[in-house]
Design goal:
The chain contains 6 helices and 6 strands; from the N terminus they run αβαββαβαβαβα. It has 169 residues and is of the alpha/beta class. The strands form 2 sheets. It has a 3-stranded parallel beta sheet with strand order 1-2-3, with no helix packed on it. Strands 5-4-6 form a 3-stranded parallel beta sheet, with helices on both faces. It starts with a helix and ends with a helix.
């Protein structure tokens, strides 16, 4: 049976607005989740059946022609948190994405590393999880600000924080 992009998208919970029958390559821009070995194999097998090069936005490790663009999320979380610490913040909230996304887990590790290095205790009440939508971010930002944080570690939230507190955050 021939597997289609629509089949793969449905299986992985990805929405596909337009599906082309004659594609020559695929950009896979879905955040990497913590998959079981069985799920990884099923996804890899489906991608292989497409028989096109695949460029991913994470380290999926598909066994086909293509490339992975890999980001150091841990280092990003560390740098963002350390920047806030260097500005004197000691009570730093973290608005994170979905818990099962690798990006979320690694950014949170970087956040914790920077706190530990600065001698700041990790407080799980200052970490909230959303779904990477603006609405979720806004609601979670309001919640975290209610916890009396002096800064919030999140790339998208930086825009909102600067709007409330000014650009020297």
């Amino acid at each position: 049976m021939q597997v289609t992009i629509k089949d793969i998208a449905r299986e992985c919970g990805v929405s596909v607005a337009t599906v082309s029958i004659n594609i020559s390559a695929l950009i896979w821009a879905k955040s990497l989740e913590k998959y079981t070995n069985e799920e990884k194999k099923k996804l890899n097998d489906a991608i292989l059946q497409l028989d096109v090069p695949v460029m991913t936005m994470d380290n999926y490790g598909f066994a086909c022609e293509g490339t992975d663009v890999v980001f150091d999320y841990r280092q990003g979380g560390y740098i963002a948190t350390k920047h806030l610490i260097d500005y004197g913040h000691r009570r730093i909230g973290c608005v994170a994405g979905k818990k099962n996304y690798q990006v979320t887990q690694e950014r949170l590790e970087g956040y914790k590393m920077a706190l530990q290095e600065a001698g700041i205790s990790y407080d799980e009440k200052l970490v909230v999880y959303g779904d990477y939508t603006m609405n979720s971010g806004y609601m979670l930002f309001s919640y975290v600000m209610g916890k009396k944080v002096t800064a919030v570690q999140d790339k998208i939230m930086k825009i909102i924080v600067e709007g409330f507190l000014g650009s020297n955050c």
